[in-house]
Each structure stands twice: as C-alpha cells, then as structure tokens.
Amino acid sequence: MPEQALLATEQLDYRFLLIIHMVCADQQIHSEEAKSLHQLRQHIKIGQHTIAEMEKILSQDEQMLSVEYIARQLPASEQGEAMRQILAIAYIDGFFSPLEREMAEQVVEIWNWSKGEILQLIKDAAASHTIENYNDNKKQAELSLGARLLQGADSVLSPVLVDSFAKIASEKVGRKLEELRREILLAGPEYDEAIQRCATIATDDYKYAEFALKNTGTAMYNLGKGIQDQLEAIQRKTSGKGKAQTATEVAKQLENTRKYLTAEILKEIESVRKSIPAKQRALNHFSIAFMGKTKAGKSTLHAIITGGGWDAIGVGKQRTTRLNRVYEWKNIRIIDTPGIGAPGGKTDEEIAQSVIEESDIICYVVTNDSIQETEFQFLKLLKEKAKPLIILLNVKNNLRDSRRLEHFLKDPDKAFAIDGQSGLGGHIERIHRYAKQHYTNDYFDIVPVMLLAAQMSREPEHKERKEKLFKASHIQNFLDSIRMSLVKYGVIRRSQTLLGSTVGAIEKPNQWVTQQAQIYRQLTDTLKSQQENSRKDIQKAASDNISSLEQQIKAIFQDAFNVIPSFAEDHWDKNEISLKIGWEGQLKNIRFEDRLKTAFEESSKNFNQDVKEILQEVGNELQLVAKLNAESFIFNQQDAINFRYLFRIGSNILLVASAVLTFFAPPIGIALGIIGTFVNLITGFFKSNQQKRREAVENISKSLENQLKTYQENALAQAKEDFGKYCNDVAQSINTYFEELIQGLEVITEQLARAKCKLDETSNYLNRAYAKRIIDWCCNKSEPLTDEAIYQTIIKVKRDFGRGMNIQTKIPLKLSKSSDEIKQVLQEDVVINSTT
Description:
Blueprint: H1 14-24, E1 28-30, H2 31-43, H3 48-58, H4 67-73, H5 76-91, H6 98-110, H7 115-128, H8 145-156, H9 159-168, H10 171-187, H11 189-238, H12 244-281, E2 286-292, H13 298-306, E3 324-329, E4 332-336, H14 348-356, E5 361-367, H15 379-384, E6 389-394, H16 402-410, H17 425-439, E7 445-449, H18 451-456, H19 466-472, H20 475-500, H21 502-571, H22 576-589, H23 592-632, H24 649-657, H25 675-683, H26 689-778, H27 787-793, E8 794-800, E9 804-809, H28 819-826, E10 829-834
Parallel strand pairs: 1-3, 2-4, 2-5, 5-6, 6-7, 9-10
Antiparallel strand pairs: 3-4, 8-9
Helix pairs in contact: 1-3, 1-4, 1-5, 4-6, 5-6, 5-7, 8-10, 9-10, 10-20, 11-12, 11-20, 11-21, 11-26, 12-21, 12-24, 12-26, 20-26, 21-22, 21-23, 21-26, 23-24, 24-26, 25-26, 26-27
C-alpha cells in the first residue's frame, strides 16, 4: 500500500492534498480551481514531498494517497476548516457536482460527523458563494478604426445599402467588411443577449431532459425487478410438479440469464444516472469541447485561447493531469480533453466521453501530416450522441526555420490554398471521406489554422512580428466563428444538447433492450422449433430402436427354434429331469439369455446415444443462433449478450433425461416344462422303439416350439411395452424441460417488450420537445416550452437517431431557414412536413 510507504521525514500537508482530491472529484479541473490552487501555493509553504503526492493525485496515479487515508490523518481540530476549504473549492466553478458531494459525504463519514453538520456547511458554502459572471466582454480592446467607421456607416446609411456594396466590392474588400461587422457584433449587446437567450432556453429544456432521464432509469429498474419477480414465480410453480430434476435445471438456467441481464441493466442505469449531472453542468454556459489525437495541437490551442498554460496546477509539465480541463472564454465554456489514444491509467477516450453529454459542439483537432482513417473512428461515438462537429485542421509547417518563416510571411494565404500541388484540397477531401464513414454525413465545417504561427506570435523573440504572425495563423477567424455560432445558432445548439442528444442517453438502453428482446424472441422460437424437431426425432429413434430390438429378439429365438430338432433327436428317450437339464444346456450353448440381455442393453445404449445426438444437435443449433446474434448486433459489441449459458442447454437436458436414461432388463428367464412329453412316453409302452422314438421326437419338438413361441410373443410384448414406456418417459422429461425453459424466456421477452414500450414513449416525448424547438428556430420564434405548445404544433416525429428526423406539424409553417442550413447546423437530415 502506498500509505505504508510514507517513510520520509517531511510532514505532508494533508489538508492541501484533500483539496487536490476535491479539485479532481468531478473528473474535471476548472481554470478557476487552477487559479485558486496557484494562489494557495503562494501563500502556504508546501514541501517537495507534498508536491510529489499532489502530482500523483492530479495524474490519477495508481499509487496516489486515497481520500480515506488523507482524511484519517487530519486531527479533529483541523477537520472543520478542511471541510470549509474543500467545499469552497467545489463551488468555485459555479457548480457543486454530485461527485463532489459524494466525496464530501465520504469524508464526513470517515470523521463520524452527523448529517446535519455537513448539510449546514454545504448550505453555508452555497450561500456565501456568488457565481461570478466570467464575462470578459468588457475587457475587450476598443473597436478598430475600421469597425468604428463601419458602425457609423450602418447607423447613417441603410444596412441594405451596405450589404449591396459588400456584394459588388472585390472579394478582399467584401471579406474585410464581413470581418469588421463580426467585430462590431461580438463587441455589442447582441452577443450578451444571445448568451441570455441560451441560458433561458437551457433552463426550460433541462426540465424535460431530467424528467426523461429519470423515467428511463425507472424503466430499467422495473425491468430488472420484473424479470426477477416473474422468474421466482415460475420457479415456485415448477417445483411443485414433482419433477424436481427438471425444475432444478431450468431454475439454474433462468437464474444465470437473470444474473446476466441484471448486471447489464445496472450498467445502463449507471450510464443514464451519469447523464443527469452532465446536463446540469451544461446549464450555465454554451460549451465547446476540444478533442483529438495526442500531439494534434490541442494544448497549443488552449494556451492561445487562455493566454497561458497549465503550469499553475502542476509543476510545469504539459500533461500534469489526465483529467478534462475547463475554463470560460467570452462566456463560452471550453472543455479541453486529453489526447485520444494517449497511454497510461484511465483511457483518455473514456475521459473524453465524459464531456460529450455536456458539450454543445465538438471541435475535433487533426493535423495535415497524419490524416488517417483510424483517427476518425472516434467520431462514431459523437454520432451516437448526435453531437455537431467542427474539424479544426492544424496546418503544420516548420516555421522555426527562418527561411520558411520568411517565405510564409510573404504570402500567408498560400499555406491555406485549397488547390495546387501543396494545397489543402486533398487533405480536406480525405477528411470528408473518412468522416462520412464514421460520422454518417459531412455536414460540418473544416477550418484550417496554423497553431504554430499563433504560438510564435506570443513569444518574445517574435515580438516585432506578433500581429502579422497571429493574423497569418487564421486562428482569430476560428475563434470569432465560434462566438458567431453562439449568436446565430446558440439557442438551437442548447436545445440540441439538452433535448436532442439526451435522446442518445435513452437510445442506448433502448437499443440494448430492443436487441435483447429480439434475441430472446428468436431464442424462444428456436427452442419451440427444436422442441418439436426433437420430439419427432426421439419418437423416430424410439420406433427404430424398438424395431431393431424386435428383430434381434426374433433372430435369437430363431436360433433356439433351429436347435429343437437335433435336441429332440438326441434326447427323445430321456426323463423329464434330463430333458430339462439338456434343454437348459442347449440354450446356454447358443447363449440365449445372454444374447437377449445384450440385445436389450444395446437397444438402450443405442437409444440413449440417439437422444444425446439429437440434443447435441439442439445445442449446436442454439450455438449458431448465439453466434449469428453476436455478429449481427454491432451496437455496443463488448456488451453483447453472453450466450455461454446457452451452450449448456444440450447437456442440461441430458442431465434431466439421465433420471430415466437407464438400462431396462429383459423378461425373466425361460421355464419350459416337458412333463407332457414324458407322460406320452409312458402311454406308448407297447409301441415299437422306432415308433416310440418318432413320436417322442415329435412331442418334444412340438412342446418346445409351442412354449418357445409363447415365450417369444411375451418377450416381444414386454419389450415393446417396457421400452416404449422408457422412451416416452425420456421424451416427456425433455419436453417438460423445453416447456418450462420456453415459459421462462417468454416471461423475459415480455418484460423486455414492456420496458421497450416505456423507453419508446420517453424517446418520443423528448423528440417531440426537440422538434418543437427546431420549428421555433426555423420560424424565428422564441416561446416557453410547454406540453400544450408541443401538442398544438407537433403531430409526430420519426427519428433515425443521429442521422435524420422527419417532423410532421399540425399547422402550415413558413420557415425562414433553408433545408441546407438546417442540415448544416443540426448535422442531421431534417425534413419538416406541414399539414395543409
């Protein structure tokens, strides 16, 4: 344990380390938390040993000191102040997350505090914390001269006239006018108003999202409970039938199924549960998440936007922490994720996934020197969440080479040219091709920038070329486009996050339930088919083996009939005892009883083997069904149903059947009487020896033949009755197993269908709300979202999640947005049909 390895003489600052744990509790490090930590380190003396332990916590090292260990080291006299400090750091980003609350409650439980004490401290922390508006619009530099002139022109001249001038002006002049207008817009009240509209929309939409997510969690919980209750009822019922072996094996089979489904259901519930705080976090700000492969340039982009790095939270390393980093810029919440595919600890992809729910748009950073298909496979996850996308193409050029730098600054736009041998056209075409494969469509912007040029503009040695380098990087265009997107599309983006993509949190368990329902329906149908097939096959096997046994019995008896003449000739003059002993010896010589016994045993074995092969075929068929299901469901492949329990069905049925699959004995041994023959010999006292011999032989032969014939008939009848009963018992046992297992699977299928119905209703509820927001946006309307307003506007919504929507409205609409603009913004194929 790392706790036991602390042998250094330097005393650790446990209170400070507890604060570090709280900073990391919600899997994000906010810029305000980083600033506070930096200030705290400047005011208190922290030794190198504490710094080393801090680094482990920030990097989520497996050897880091646990919250429990650190909390136990704090004396009671310091606990109150420590709790106030960790609550203060938790609130500093404006959101006290459930994960942060969970850590606080864990600590007070270790300290044996009462619930009242922690609730009071949380209340005090919330009351004393004022969520600061990190709006730095007022900190902007004054408008440029050109912007001020254009602003004056717009107030004096008709905006239409200015627009007309922009159209007839040269491309360069027109582009400059557009830049100046954008500068005015982002510095004026319209930007602040857009921020406020986004907040209002988010508050309304969150109520619908929260309601839907809680309904989803409830539906999944009820699914697990319903399966358990119904299977328990079936097991109680089957155990009372007197077929203990069958009931036991079916109960085991269904219990394995229930355990698997319950485990998967709990995973889905946990996934939905995590979505709620993510949506809560998304309320306060329009959020954009930067993602991309390691070394794509995200850290550079972060430094450019924030004007600094992240040395303050660590010890100067570029990646001190593997957690998401959060900061506010121009009232936009920026989430910087670790590079996709970086090695070590919790995967960066898992960390990146954690921010998708709360982001309004994803900026995926790629470089022109390593555009490969594997780099875009991550986009599948974005499409599953219906997240809009921007591709930031970081154009790499070794500007550290002075000659290349001079060449670049002479004509910066040449590096961003689309056409030509060294143009970006090929790279952009490749991005579109790869993205289409994994993101379904290419309704997204690709923005080329040169991050190195922007980075160099901040370096002292390039001070004289600062403005030229920064402008040449095209990064300002990208930053302005983000804020312009907020002004123009912020409202619908907010609804897309809180309504549209929340359907994805429901869609995932819904797809899983749909998948399982289909699997169990197919499995049940297969079992029914196999039940009927096995019944016919076992019936045929029984008929064939009975016929075979009858033929063997007849053959054995025929051998006995064949030895009668010679036996009578050799024993015609023997007394009754000698005749009996001689006949028994004759039967023994032809192994009569041994062969009968062997015939019965072999028939039993052959039938048993036939049954095993029939049931093995059932198992093989079910394995094929399992394999086909596993291959046909690409959704969440790692969580595909575990069919291992199905592979045991054949052996389970055999185990049930083994209770009756035992050898049965042939009829009791022959007891032939030859008394009548001896009497006849006495009555023929005065006949000649030849006559006596002939009559004696005839009498002995006739007596033996009659008795042997009767015995054969009895043996065949007994064999048919006993073997038939034996086969029927086997067939009935197997049939009972099938029926009870099918009954259990049908119960599971019914519960899955019921859950799917609930999830479909919830998805439809959110899709209709989202459709109403889309209609309002397309019509330039803004009104509160209510059930009544939705009902009055929307008839139905058909949605292929992440790909397209078909919205049917009750009233004719005059849309102000073109279909291309709707597709480009929502990045889905949206069709709106109005009734006339």
